[in-house]
Design a protein that fits this description.
Structural class of chain A: mainly alpha
Number of helices of chain A: 18
Number of strands of chain B: 0
Largest interface: A-B, 40 and 36 residues
Number of domains of chain B: 1
Order of helices and strands of chain A: HHHHHHHHHHHHHHHHHH
Distance between the termini of chain A: 52 Å
Number of domains of chain A: 1
Oligomer: heterodimer
Helix content of chain A: over 70%
Shape of chain B: elongated
Strand content of chain A: under 5%
Order of helices and strands of chain B: HHHHHH
Largest sheet of chain B: none
Largest sheet of chain A: none
CATH architecture of chain A: Up-down Bundle
Number of helices of chain B: 6
CATH architecture of chain B: Up-down Bundle
CATH topology of chain A: Amino acid/polyamine transporter I
CATH topology of chain B: A middle domain of Talin 1
Radius of gyration of chain B: 20 Å
CATH superfamily of chain A: Amino acid/polyamine transporter I
Chain lengths: 409, 153
């Protein structure tokens, strides 16, 4: 019974923790601009993150070692170093966006300018990282993120023509007024929002922090095979809300405050309050994950003691990196950079950098020296290899598309 | 490619990305077509901001929004609209035919900014139940911007 409850809690945390500021902005913006013509990217991205996270969790549980440690060992320090710099930079961008997202959520309820709230949000993130046990941190904010289910309620309350929705989602086209380039750019943005590397760094490091072993492989599978698809349903609900409510009004999503407008319209003030709570929880949880991920990637590459399961005095350099990342993110946020633009760039660059960590995990997940008899099956390898090809194509196309479309303008 | 070269490339990409995230003035328009394209982009962005404020005003009057949410969101859209106007005004018209386009659009943007400011003032004064009436001129602003867009297409 305890095991079942533990799995249920893990699944719920995975659902609520799936959505971050990237998913909020990307799904809402594409729904408002492209209707449901990019809806297919969400399940495609969810399958990708399921494969990625399952392999990473399995490798971490069986080796008791996380992603970056193994990447350096298996593929060499040079590849690992390039990977580290790219992943750390993208992580930092994402952390900046998430902390700004927390500040914006609080400002929507307090009327205080969000820029003034950024330092306070950052202090709160750091205090929670420092003081709260790992599993409590994961579960509390994951469960609070379930407040975003209000978007699913909103879709139901709007009462759309389900046949029409299904038809639009399954017959995608490039809408009038858009070009194939902007369509491809936003497809990459959505894909990057679903397959963020920091989630995998956090997931695999968390498996080591929680002392997972072969006995926990079932829980790993439950979290990813049940939790992530349901999290994808949340993402789709956000997109559908935007397409049903914002698109007919010619409203483009350029501020985070526009994301919950459909919920206010369909569910009222209580729904709006839940949506803002969900945005707070999603961005706060993601800020915790990205700040810890910053520490994980650096400490794991350099071979330092890392993680919350060590006393802070033993993992002092890990905690210094976490703190320094938060400070740098705050300084960037205080310059007044547009948080939505930072979010868009971080998710697009995440998509571009994915092959750097995905490929090593695919290699290690097939290496019996690391995973013994639990190597990938043929079907999984076939699908995983297909995704690797897609990721490489995405990585090659990202920067040119960013230039051609002027960042999706 | 050596590790040092890879690091330099990544750091350069990082710097370009951060620069791209900062608000920047719209680039110059060298031809009338270019200028018209920027005018259309500006008008579309302005319509989005105006419609967002209209929507917020309707939600507020219907009791479907929170006071602080309405106040903060309207202020955000006002800032966004002011930035859109400022960016467009900073673009040098390439020739006298574009002067008429500029004059028209700036006039529409001025009206929209004024009406959004009126809604913001009312929201901050707690006149939430009357926001839809106070924001009624925004429908005219939106329609005018849409007509401008269609005329330029």
């Amino acid at each position: 019974m305890k095991k079942v409850l533990g799995i249920a809690l893990g699944v719920l945390s995975a659902i609520g923790g799936f959505v971050d500021i990237g998913d909020l902005v990307a799904n809402s913006a594409t729904g408002a601009r492209f209707d449901l013509n990019l809806a297919w990217v969400v399940p495609f991205g969810v399958i990708g993150i399921i494969i990625y996270a399952e392999m990473s969790g399995r490798v971490a549980a069986l080796c008791q070692r996380p992603v970056f440690d193994l990447v350096r060992e298996r593929l060499g320090p040079r590849f690992g170093a390039g990977n580290l710099v790219a992943s750390f930079f993208i992580n930092l961008l994402t952390l900046t966006a998430e902390i700004a997202g927390v500040a914006i959520a609080v400002s929507l309820l307090t009327s205080v300018n969000y820029v003034l709230l950024i330092p306070f949000a950052a202090v709160l993130v750091w205090v929670v990282c420092w003081r709260l046990p790992f599993n409590i941190m994961e579960q509390v904010f994951g469960l609070m993120g379930m407040a975003l289910l209000v978007f699913v309620v909103a879709v139901w309350k709007i009462g759309p023509d389900w046949g029409d929705l299904a038809s639009k989602a399954t017959h995608p086209t490039v809408p009038n007024g858009e070009t194939p380039f902007t369509y491809a750019y936003y497809a990459i943005a959505l894909f990057g929002a679903a397959m963020t590397p920091y989630e995998v760094f956090f997931f695999s490091s968390g498996a080591v922090e929680d002392r997972w072993s072969a006995a926990d492989l079932g829980e790993n599978k439950a979290n990813v095979f049940i939790g992530f698809p349901l999290g994808g349903v949340l993402s789709l609900a956000i997109m559908v809300c935007a397409s049903l409510v914002l698109a007919p009004r010619a409203i483009d999503v350029a501020q985070l405050s526009q994301v919950p407008l459909p919920v206010a319209s369909a569910v009222g003030r209580v729904g709006l309050a839940f949506a803002i709570l969900g945005i707070f929880a999603a961005t706060f949880g993601a800020a915790l994950e990205t700040s810890l991920s910053s520490g994980y990637v650096v400490a794991q590459y350099l071979g330092w003691p890392w993680g919350k399961y060590h006393p802070p005095t033993r993992a002092s350099r890990f905690h210094v990196v976490v703190l320094a990342s938060i400070v740098v993110a705050v300084l960037i946020g205080l310059t007044g950079v547009d948080p939505v633009k930072v979010t868009e760039y971080s998710i697009v660059l995440s998509a571009a950098a994915l092959p750097l960590t995905y490929f090593p995990i695919l290699v290690i997940a097939n290496d019996r020296r690391y995973v013994q008899d639990h190597t990938n099956g043929r079907f999984l390898n076939a699908v995983a290899t297909l995704y690797l090809i897609v990721l490489v194509l995405v990585a090659v196309a990202t920067i040119p598309l960013m230039i051609i479309t002027k960042g999706g303008a | 490619m050596s590790t040092r070269s890879s690091m330099r490339a990544i750091l350069l990409a990082a710097l370009m990305t951060l620069v791209g995230c900062v608000e920047h003035r719209v680039g110059p328009a060298r031809t009338a077509d270019d200028y018209d394209r920027k005018a259309r982009t500006t008008a579309s962005a302005a319509i989005s901001a105006v419609e967002t404020v209209r929507f917020l005003a309707e939600l507020s009057s219907a009791g479907d929004s929170l006071a602080t949410f309405t106040s903060v969101s309207v202020s955000e859209q006002e800032d966004a609209l002011a930035a859109i106007r400022s960016d467009f005004e900073s673009i040098q018209p390439p020739g006298s035919p574009s002067d008429e386009v500029r004059s028209q659009l700036v006039g529409l943007l001025d009206a929209a900014v004024e009406h959004v400011a009126t809604v913001r003032i009312a929201a901050r004064r707690g006149q939430l139940g009357e926001l839809a009436d106070i924001g009624a001129p925004l429908a005219g602003d939106s329609a005018a911007l849409n007509s401008f867009l269609q005329a330029l297409s």
